[in-house]
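Take a look at the protein record below and flag anything odd:
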Amino acid sequence: MITKNALILRDLDVLGEMASKGLVHVTISVTTLDAELVRSMEPRTSTPAARLRAVKALRDAGVPVRVLVAPIIPGLNDREIPSILAAAKEAGAQHAAFTMLRSR
């Protein structure tokens, strides 16, 4: 599952059960750690702090969790990559990936 919303925690019991059988992992997108910037880039989604809390809650429930740093927009949020990865690791993410946005 891939999401950018901490509401995935509503299904934590089901996800935990599925994870115990090796049937699911969750990827949470973290675009920025700046709550103001996320409101502009991804309105009506969870704050960065809520997403990281979701990573921790999922991990604590035994669900394998990955973080997707996406989209990376050069000059806007690319400088945050190390901070996002550090925060994701601290929250319990086991893997990370990224998607670079390229405009012409």
Notes: The first helix runs from residue 12 to 20. The longest strand covers residues 65-72. The CA atoms of residues 15 and 21 lie 10 Å apart. The radius of gyration is 14 Å.
